[in-house]
Amino acid sequence: MRIGLSQEEQVQDSATNQVDRQRKQSARRSAADSGRKLSALLHGVETPLLGGASSLEICQVACDSRKVRPGGLFFALHGAKADGNKFIQDALKRGAVAIASEEPAPGTIPAGVVWIQVREARKALAITAANFLGHPANALQLVAVTGTNGKTTTTSVVDAIVKASGAKTGLFGTIAYHTPLGDYPAPNTTPESVDLQGFLAEIRDAGGKYAVLEASSHSLAMDRLWACHFQAAVFTNLTREHLDFHRTFEDYFAAKKRLFEGTGAGAPEVAVLNADNEFAKRLAGLAKKTVTYGLDSDADITTKKFQLTFDGLTFTAQTPNGRVHAVSRLVGRINVYNLLAAIGAAQALGLSNEVIENGIRDLDSVSGRFQRIDLGQPFLVIVDYAHTDDALEKLIRTARELNP
Predict the structure, then answer these.
(1) Is the whole-model pTM more than 0.90?
(2) Does residue 375 have a pLDDT over 60?
(3) Which residues form the domain of 44?
(4) What are the CA-CA distances from residue 346 to residues 349, 350, 352, 363 (Å)?
(5) How far is CA 175 from the centre of its chain?
(6) Residues 332, 338, 344: CA angle, nearest 5 degrees
(7) Fewer Cβ neighbours under 10 Å: the N or C end of the chain?
(8) Interatomic CA distance for residues 192 and 40, integer angstroms
(9) Residue 3, helix vs strand vs coil
(10) Which region among 72-76, 329-333, 377-381 has the lowest average model confidence (pLDDT)?
(11) Is-contact 194 223, C-beta < 8 A?
(12) Closest by alpha carbon to 70, among 86, 51, 91, 52?
């Protein structure tokens, strides 16, 4: 653990190391570990001429100096709390043969080490990692869900639907990262680009066809999803949050908007937008196709009647592809929205209504999201993350609606 990190950073630092340890212990290594020529890795990255260094063999791409192996390419990224350029010497000691940075080469770089000055290091990292692993995203259908609230539940429902089809998939979000080969702790809601590309390669190599992920505003602003093309991009809602990072509400929305404008690999095939949220109108038309969902508007995917109890909910959704009868153990009106969003995403993947209904029925609960805890006690216990004012308000309202 690095000295000088805050307590919050140390927790994330520990979780990151745990992910790395677990991945090393498993028996999976991409064929790309045999090495790639530097010129091939930098294809699509704006860089100065490399000259004779273009044939240099690179065995690894990393943005954490502690993970660098001999023959690796280290990206020195500027972070909100730390500057990767300060860890270049550590990367060199561990065997890095090339350094990529937005900064010009310092005079302290040893002879024989290639310095690559790039314009936008985070985008360059994502492109390089995708090149290194053979663009695994191109072999998968990707779904990303963004918004202030509802990301975790919506992605969990989509994941359950995909699994109901019999396909292998991956799920990445606040709770954990899941691939066909294992489960890992989540240091961030959305993995760093080099880690995400590695996870996508795991899914591809295991015969998977889908990946579902939460797209946080931080990850979009920091280009973690760059070089990924999405079959479906879902917008849940937008309320005030993360203004310590984005500074203004408009900046926060602009980060969310980047998902629908395209993350370096073309606009999403389908945008699934919550028509009951005013910001959806500003996202319409950015993707190749737009599908809306909602309860209070004339949406493409909607339901006019639903039954809510503490045991779950039922409704019949009207969709462009026919009716979907949803029977779910999720609780509350807000989860009607999350289920409608998931239906839209699943239809964008081409999954049948029967598979969608089965997947919704299969999902028991989502950890920390209006989750019932039953240990035989003579009273009801609900656990909910509710990390924003809006989420807490909806949580209390839901409980009151079910227990007037």
Answers:
(1) no
(2) yes
(3) 28-132
(4) 5, 7, 8, 15
(5) 12
(6) 145
(7) C
(8) 21
(9) coil
(10) 377-381
(11) no
(12) 91
